[in-house]
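Q: What does the assembly look like in three dimensions?
Context provided by user:
Components: two
Sequences:
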Amino acid sequence: MKGFDPHFADLPDYILKITKEIWEDRGIATLHRYYGRDIPMRMPMGMTVGNLATIDGTLATLAAFPDRQLLGEDVIWSGDEDAGFLSSHRLVTTGTHTGFGVMGPPTGRSFTIRAIADCFCIRNQITDEWLLRDGSGLALQLGLDPETLVRGWVEAEGGPERAKRPFTPADDIPGPYGGRGNDNEWGQRLAAILQAIMDKDVAVIRRDYDRAVRTEHPGIRGGWGTAFAEAEWMAFRSAFPTADFQVHHVIGREDPHQPRRAAVRWSLTGTHDGHGRYGPPSGAPVHVMGFSHAEWGSWGLRREFSLWDELAILKQILIHRG
Amino acid sequence: MAVTDGTPPPWESPEGFILGVTRRIWEERRIASLTRHYARDIVVRSPASVVVGNAGVIAATMATLAEFPDRELPGEDVIWCEAGPGAYLSSHRLICWATHLGSGAYGPASGRRLRYRILADCHVRGEVIDDEWLVRDQGAVVRQMGLEPLDWTRSQIAREGGPERCVKPLTPRTDRPGPYGGRGNASEWGARHADLLQRVMSADMAAIPATYDRAAELSLPGHRRAHGHEGADRFWMSLRAAFPDADFTVHHVIGREDPGLPSRTALRWSLWGRHSGWGMFGEPSGAEVYVLGMSHAEWGPRGLRRDWTLLDETAIWRQIVLHKGDA
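A: Here is the predicted structure of the complete assembly.
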């Protein structure tokens, strides 16, 4: 790959190897090399700029979960060597809570959650990023009640008035990547499915999903069949029925010996004005950053992995409620 | 591939036939069509029993549907190979869900919700299934009904009339030959999967990191899920550790490369020998045990990416309990 170190065979190889090098092999300092000095990183809990912030964040996470493993399940990518690549990387992360950190004193419990990172990669560096992990799934596996945990964070940060605000589009600092993905059919299909669901055309799930579909959603909620997927999406959309849904980035891929697959980054912006997954309507202004990955088989969409950070949603609601 | 000779094929493909017949019989209640789609003298082998003839299959189907009337069983995959003119061997992976709405073999209706997998190898000629091997995740069913597999197995033996009269599990001694004697197809992927299991069963555990993707996802007996090399190592180690001297045999291997799909494999294998080690089944009992196992896999650019392996824990406990005579 032009512009990349010679020991990287292709983009997925680059992503998987540097992930392991940085987080598992303790090459935290290599972030100076692999992450741009001014990299904007958008996470649901807030935005950071620059690799020094990334280094500190990485160290803090590893201190709380020293045995954390990051298993890369898929890299769904677009772009090329000249314009740069966008990698949408889905990981299974596992570890044991043996250290102090944002999740509180060590619980000794272990966890397995998913995370997705969209990274812009050019000339051997990551210079733009969107990242989220299943925060509520992590809390639940550590035996922590998500709402209590987030309430604790709000208090520790000085109460509802002064607590650090989760990410909203107004906080965004544009980075070097301005692409929207590629034109592959399967990416367009996933974007159309998500758009239909958000337009309350929930029947799209029975039309386009395999009867035996496996769906993985935040809060480590997973299940089989179209009924599970329908119930999940309805519970989510019902909490923010009037919010504005936007698709930001769409990748589709057809690679030999692999299923057709897609990666979409999307958001919901609006008000928590419905009864749904997140309790009685609070009127809180809410921004939800979302990622969806999908695979198709012979009979429709067969695996759906969607993530949003429910802790960031709870934080926006709790701050608004005061 | 033409599945019928001469007459217009009602099923466009083996996948269409297997999914269609399954839905027709078990969900659309056309149970009587078993007489058409199951050969009269079919041998159905599952770890718990060897059943001969479609009459037995019909009776068992009705008993299951009386107890779990809303049962659905969508097919996750059909991995098949040709088996001579107009015939094929289908390895079908199903995910089932059902509610315990009727009283039956699991006691009074409890309203409990079940989710479990089945792997079924069927030999199909035309539109008739005439030979079958089936592993249902009975350990998952029993646990989700709120019971422990060993306790349930003991009470099941008692219900069947005690150790002398109870149904005998599948072993090479109770097995019956059927019309299908094939071994699968020749495929690089199938060979790779078979080699993995052969190496693991020879205690060459390094085959796991060499073959599995490091983010592999495993769906295991008892409806358990595991990830990565560690997850794979734990499962295979604890299985082999329980039967360290047993003969391991791979009976059937299919590999497929279909456009737009990952390379997939389907294996049927067995362990046959003494329960002489500490492992998945506790204290060594010395029981002679036959383990029928089935595995499906999807392969990605970095190795074996998804593994579905089933064996019936309760059929293994049954052999242990019958040996110890503490039923």
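Follow-up: Chain B is about 30% helix and 35% strand.
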